[in-house]
Structures are given as structure tokens and as C-alpha cells.
């Protein structure tokens, strides 16, 4: 296997999550583990979450009973 080694870059992702998805993802992001992100075609990346990960509740008619973050 040939490799150029590990390289680093900062990216920003916007995720839209329902209530039941938010807590498990937040726990995973705070775990300090390196994550493997993969598209549904042929791209994949190893990523490590760093810094302050922000979340906000999206404005919707159901935001008080079923928030989307």
C-alpha cells in the first residue's frame, strides 16, 4: 500500500437531526474517538471532532415537542 501519510484540514458540517438522533450523536462526538464518515457513493474520510460543537433548535411548528437540531 502506498500512502502520502495523514493530512489535516478543518471542515464544517451541518447536520439536521431529530430528537432521538441528537443525544447519541452528541455522546459520540464527545467521546474523543476518530470517526469514519462515508458517502453513499465512493468517498470516505477519517475525522476527529475538535473545538466547540454547537447546536441550535430549528424554527418549526413542532420545535417544543419534537425539536429538530
Describe the structure.
- The structure is a single chain.
- The protein is elongated, with a radius of gyration of 15 Å.
- The protein is built from 1 helix and 2 strands.
- With 69 residues, it is of the alpha+beta class.
- The mean pLDDT is 80.
- It has a two-stranded antiparallel sheet.
- The longest helix is centred in the middle third of the chain and has 12 residues, at 19-30.
- The protein is 17% helix and 12% strand.
What order do the helices and strands follow? HEE
Helix content: 10-25%
- The number of distinct helices, counting runs of at least 4 residues, comes to 1
Number of strands: 2
Major beta sheet, strand line-up: 1-2
Largest sheet: 2 strands, antiparallel
Low confidence ranges: none
Indicate the mean pLDDT: 80
Radius of gyration: 15 Å
Helix/sheet category: alpha+beta
Distance between the termini: 41 Å
Sum up the overall morphology in one term: elongated
DSSP strand content: 5-15%
What order do the helices and strands come in, and which of them pair?
Blueprint (H helix, E strand, L loop, with lengths): L18 H12 L4 E4 L5 E4 L22
